[in-house]
Amino acid sequence: MITQQIPHATTISALRTRVRTWRDDRLSVGFVPTMGALHDGHLSLVRLAKAQCDRVVTSIFVNPKQFAAGEDLDAYPRTLIPDAEKLTDAKCDLIYLPTPEIMYPDGYSANLVLKGPAIGLEAAVRPHFFDGVATVVAKLFNQVRPDMAFFGEKDYQQLLVIRQLVKDLDFPVEILAGETGRDKDGLALSSRNVYLDADQRARAGQLNLILKDFAAALSAGSTVSASQATALAKANEVFDAVDYVEARCATSLAELGDGVIDRRTRVLAAVRLGSTRLIDNMAAKPPS
Ligand code: PAF
């Protein structure tokens, strides 16, 4: 339970009442959806939202629809009290804490099924994932009705999926992206990093270096196939398993040919250390 001093809503009607008072005062509303276990990547999104909007709502909801059987739904870190304190320090105006019963009451039946940027990469390994994310984000948008919503580039495919969702379903919300927060060694901040033991944590920092080299090779004019082969070989040396290391079109995530890149490109990877999956991505500029 969090205290009354920290403004929060646990029902859709309490959320809407608060947001309506802001709207009556002509204040703009920013929204940062999260699953909690907040780190500085989340808080930088809240700070970005505060800079862009008059009021900011952050939701914390561990969405069962985006976990498959056997994934870490039960083990997913739940740290409500420290999360609420961090959000208060970041000047978040309202924390929205719906329960699974509120989001998916008995008889709930609507689930989105996506194509486009939701095909391949993450979806090749987690086929349920983006349909679950889109379903909960669509519900949250309808509940909060924000002017702007903020997503991290760390989950780059998710960001493109949400942009497409907003376009397809005509949500009147602008999507803004926040840069990936990183530890000192460059490891992308993630709530799942707490699962890593000391040896795994030391190796995890290699992922962003492998992607940096991959992006630099592409920008220097190396072909996609040659630079990808080098990145893949390095990833296979460091990690227990590699789900993918790829260069894709930065706007559609379409596959690229074997040749030299000639458009906005993103390099993306997913690897495993034990049972922990790490994902990361970064931009690669076309050769000048
Ligand atoms: O990125 C996340 O934390 C989740 O996928 C999101 C967008 C909050 C939906 O549950």
From TrEMBL:
Q: A cellular component term (GO) from this record?
A: cytosol
Where found, per UniProt? Answer: Cytoplasm
Q: Where is the active site?
A: H42
User: What InterPro entries does the database record attribute to this sequence?
Assistant: Pantoate_ligase, Pantoate_ligase_C, Rossmann-like_a/b/a_fold
Q: Which Gene3D superfamilies match?
A: HUPs (3.40.50.620), Pantoate-beta-alanine ligase, C-terminal domain (3.30.1300.10)
Reactions listed under catalytic activity: (R)-pantoate + beta-alanine + ATP = (R)-pantothenate + AMP + diphosphate + H(+)
What enzyme category does the UniProt record give? ligase
Q: Which residues bind beta-alanine?
A: Q66
> Which keywords accompany this UniProt record?
ATP-binding, Cytoplasm, Ligase, Nucleotide-binding, Pantothenate biosynthesis
The biological pathway it contributes to is:
Cofactor biosynthesis; (R)-pantothenate biosynthesis; (R)-pantothenate from (R)-pantoate and beta-alanine: step 1/1
Which GO BP annotation is one of this protein's? Answer: pantothenate biosynthetic process
- Single GO molecular function: pantoate-beta-alanine ligase activity
For this protein, the record's Pfam families field holds: Pantoate_ligase (PF02569)
Residue sites binding ATP per the record: 35-42, 152-155, 181, 189-192
Its Enzyme Commission number(s) read 6.3.2.1
**Binding positions ((R)-pantoate):** Q66, Q158
Q: What does this protein do?
A: Catalyzes the condensation of pantoate with beta-alanine in an ATP-dependent reaction via a pantoyl-adenylate intermediate.
Miscellaneous comment in the UniProt entry for this protein: The reaction proceeds by a bi uni uni bi ping pong mechanism.
Q: How does it assemble?
A: Homodimer.
Family, per entry? Belongs to the pantothenate synthetase family.
Question: Which HAMAP family is this protein grouped with?
Answer: PanC
NCBIfam families membership = panC (TIGR00018)
Protein name, entry field: Pantothenate synthetase
